[in-house]
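Ticket #4471: structure export looks truncated?
Reporter: QA, pipeline team
Priority: medium

Steps to reproduce: submit the single chain below to the structure queue and open the exported record.
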Amino acid sequence: MHTKFFPILILIFLLISNFIFAQKTYYVSTNGKDKNTGLSPDDAFLTLQQAANIVSAGDSVIVLEGNYTGFDIRTSGTQNSPIVFKAVNQNVVIDQHNYKTNDGINIENADWIVIDGFKVINQPRAGMRIAVSDFVVIKNNYCTQNNTWGIFTGFTNDILIENNICSYSAQQHGIYVSNSGDRPIVRNNECFSNTGCGIQLNADVSQGGDGIISNAVIEGNILHDNGTGGGSAINLDGVQNSVIYNNLIYNNHATGIALFMIDGAEGSKNNKVYNNTIINPQDARWAMLVNSGSTGDTLYNNIFINHHSFRGSISVDESSIQNFFSDYNIVVDRLSNDDGESNMNLSDWQNLGYDIHSQIANQEDQIFVNPGSNDFHILAGSQAVNEGTGLVSSIVKNDIENLPRPQGNGFDIGAYEYAGATGISHEEKVKGFELYQNFPNPFNPSTKIKYTIPKTSFVTLKIYDVLGKEISTLVKGEQPAGIYNVEFSLNGRSISGRYLAKLVNGIYLYRLTAGSFSSTKKLVLLK
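Actual output as written to the record:
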């Protein structure tokens, strides 16, 4: 064959391949049938497993409300074409385990998978299990009353576990990342009333691998009422070169944050523990524990309060004091350098070179807005305001509610930054965050989002498609107080306005963040 035809043949092959392997959207419904095509809500599959059996890279599965049996998936997506399973709302419930394992959702030997928005309950083992699978995203799920774990991972690298609720695990933990998986991100989850830990990272050298979890990010989580059977709110065994910041931890019945080694290959070394708020009840252990060769760890800008009569804020052992740094914290007057066997006051602790700029905690109602109701935002004039260090600034850019730090003359101590006069406090709300639409009139397809900012604040307004992919940022930056309108055009038609987005017809989500206020709503655009 003459070589001049090669480029034409290659082009034809690529066009045919793109046609044959085009990305598809499948639907699953309790009114569906597995013999259907699955390509529309009216022709949906009946089972999640049928969708899992046929998906390929780039495909999406939209699950309509109802109760389902779980699924097992062993097909990979790619970086640019992940496989996405998306629940349409919070009424998509998995209450029977999948056909292959004792878990609700099982992802195994499958990379680049996204699981978004499912409620998984009463599973014999884990609500969701992810094993030997990299670049998986688990977000916006609710895993409750499962026997062993809410979310479990084994030998997974680069996993993102975000915005999930994991509660009432009967035997162990809310979220458990295990087996030497590197670079996990565990962010903005709420874990409560689990018998074991809220969040456990265990490198498990006994199970193979190097026995070290490296470069983890654990941020913005709310962990409470865990540990009645033992286990820390955040338990880190063999975790190194990681960051743990902006977490709110209260009323847990064992340790707050623990850096240690039991089944890791080494101690939890060279970690940065910044801007966490930990309030331990009377029956708890130490707020912060560092032992078994966990050297090189740094504790800055944390609130470590403990109501136990003997145990206190920080306990470190002799094997972990090399390159151990702790400062700019708020503590109770009980600290230990012998693994909690005894305690000393802050003055004696400072004589050892630790916490030189730290303070003994005032009464909680002088620090927090309403500690009796578990509202740990910090008060104006609190000892936490502007008393932290900027040494955390390369990592801690915002607080737990995404409020930029610092707001005042310095970093605040704890998970929350006081908004002050330059932002919107937690007690103030963005006003009039409403959608105004004028459709289906095809000659005037005007759609506006209107909101009022009571104070000058950093504002973002983002638009997402129905699968949660960000497609537009309309507002980003500090805005003065006032009324704002954001307008849209359909199919490229221009509409005047302060801000403008060009979107095709469809269903979208829009999220406004202003100071500590954040809210997400649905947007329907029609021509």
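Status: closed, not a bug. The export was complete when the record was re-opened. Leaving a note from the reviewer for reference: Residues 6-20 form the longest helix (15 residues).
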